[in-house]
Amino acid sequence: MTWTPLSGRAQEIALEVLLAGPLTRLELADRLDLSAGSLTRLTKPLLAEGFLIERDEPVGNGQRMGRPQRPLDVPASAFHFVGVKVTSSRLFGVVTTLKAEIVHATDVAIDSKDPGHIVAGIAALVRDLTRQVGHVEAVGVTVGGEVRDRRTVVFSHILGWRHVPLADLIAEATGLPTVVDNDITGLTESESWFGEGRGLEQFALVTIGAGIGYSYVVRRHQVSLTDAGLGAASHLPLDPTGPVCRLGHRGCALAWLSSGSIAGTVSTALGRTVTYQQALDLAEQHDPAAARIVGDSARQLGVLLGMVASLTMPEAVLLGGEGVRLATVGKHEMEEGITKYRDPQASAIDIRLRPSDFTEWARGAAVVAIQDRVLGRV
Ligand SMILES: [Zn+2]
C-alpha cells in the first residue's frame, strides 16, 4: 500500500493521529472539536483503507464511554521514507517509518562536490536503503544552503553550487518522488513534528557545527524567510575580540562558534592541526590553550542563546547540530554567557540539548519527504 495524500477533515484526523497518537476517539474528537458521531463517521473509511489502525491495548478506564477504548494510531511501519543529508565530504542516509523512526542508517564518503557525482552517490544510497525495507514512498534530501520551492539549490556555500535542480536530478536517477530543502529547515520540522518540539506552543532551534543555524516555530509553523538558507544568525555580532569569519566580521557567531573556526584557533595555538573533537577533548583534559579557546567560545554560545531567548521569548530553546558537544564541555562558561546580558530578574531559559549527529540531520531530510506526502505536496 502507498500513502495517498488525504484532504480536508480526513487529512486533519490522520495528521493529528500521526503527530499525537495513539489517541482514543474521545481524545481525538476533543482535539479536533468534532462530535463523537462525526468522528466515527470520518474515521470509518480511514480504518477501512488502512490509513488508521486500532491498537490492541486499551487506554484509560473508559469511564466517560462506559468501556475501555482502543486507541487509534497510524500504521507507521507500513510506510517508509529515505532521508539524505549532503555535507561537503559525506552523504548521510536513513530510511524511516511514517513516524520518522529510523529503521536503518548508513553513510558514504564523496570525493567530489560535482552535482552529477553527488546525485549518483545519493541514488546509490537510496537503492541501498530501499533494499532494507522493500519499498519507499519518497526521498527527502537536505543541504546547507538556500533551496527554492523544495526543488532547486539556489546557492550553497559548502558545496560551491548555484542553481542546481537537485530534486529533478535525483527523481530522474531514482524514479522516486523527491523533495529537497535546507538542512536547518529539515531538522526543525523533525523536532516540530516528531521531536522535542511536540507539545510546545513555540520554540527556537539553534544549531552549531560547520555553520550556525537558527529557526523559530509557532504552533507547528516554522517562520520562514526568503534568506533562511543563508543562515540569518550566522553573522550576529557576539564579541569583537573573536576570530574573523569568511565575510570579514570579527567576533560574529560563525567566527566564534563554527567547528572549523574553533579547531583552527586551537590548531594555531598548539602549532599542530587538531580536529574539532580533538580540540574539545584537549579542553576537557585541561590543556591550557584548548580550555581557554573552547571556554571563550562556549561563553559566546551562551550570549547567542540569551539573545535568542530575549528576542523571540520561546518556551524552550533546542540546541543541536553536530558541534553541540561544546555546550557540554563548556557548560559552566555557556551558563555565564547566557546570563551576561540578561536582567538578573529574568526567568531561566529552558535550554534542551538535542542528540545531533549527522543521522539526526538525515532524519530531518526524511521528515521533509514525510510532510510533503502527508500534506499532499508530492
Ligand atoms: Zn561573520
Read across the widest sheet, the strand sequence of neighbours is 5-4-3-6-10
Per DSSP, the total helix count is: 13
Mean pLDDT: 92
Rounded to the nearest angstrom, the distance between the terminal CA atoms is 17 Å
| Estimated radius of gyration | 22 Å
Report the β-strand fraction as a percent range: 15-25%
Chart the SSEs and their pairings.
Blueprint: H1 8-20, H2 25-32, H3 36-49, E1 53-54, E2 72-73, E3 80-86, E4 90-97, E5 102-109, H4 115-133, E6 138-143, E7 146-148, E8 152-156, E9 161-164, H5 166-174, E10 178-182, H6 183-194, E11 202-208, E12 212-218, E13 221-222, H7 253-257, H8 259-270, H9 276-284, H10 288-312, E14 316-320, H11 326-329, H12 331-340, E15 351-353, H13 358-374
Parallel strand pairs: 3-6, 6-10, 11-14, 14-15
Antiparallel strand pairs: 1-2, 3-4, 4-5, 7-8, 8-9, 11-12, 12-13
Zinc ion binds next to helix 7.
How does this structure look, described?
With 378 residues, the protein is of the alpha/beta class. It folds into three domains: 8-74, Orthogonal Bundle (Arc Repressor Mutant, subunit A); 79-189 and 359-374, ATPase, nucleotide binding domain (Nucleotidyltransferase, domain 5, 2-Layer Sandwich); 199-353, 2-Layer Sandwich (Nucleotidyltransferase, domain 5). It contains 13 helices and 15 strands. It has helices spanning 8-20, 25-32, 36-49, 115-133, 166-174, 183-194, 253-257, 259-270, 276-284, 288-312, 326-329, 331-340, 358-374; strands spanning 53-54, 72-73, 80-86, 90-97, 102-109, 138-143, 146-148, 152-156, 161-164, 178-182, 202-208, 212-218, 221-222, 316-320, 351-353. A five-stranded mixed β-sheet has the order 5-4-3-6-10. A hairpin with a 4-residue loop joins strand 4 and strand 5. Helix 4 packs across helix 5, helix 6 packs across helix 13 (358-374) and helix 9 crosses helix 10 (288-312). The mean pLDDT is 92. Zinc ion is lined by residues 235, 245, 247, 249, 252, 254-255.
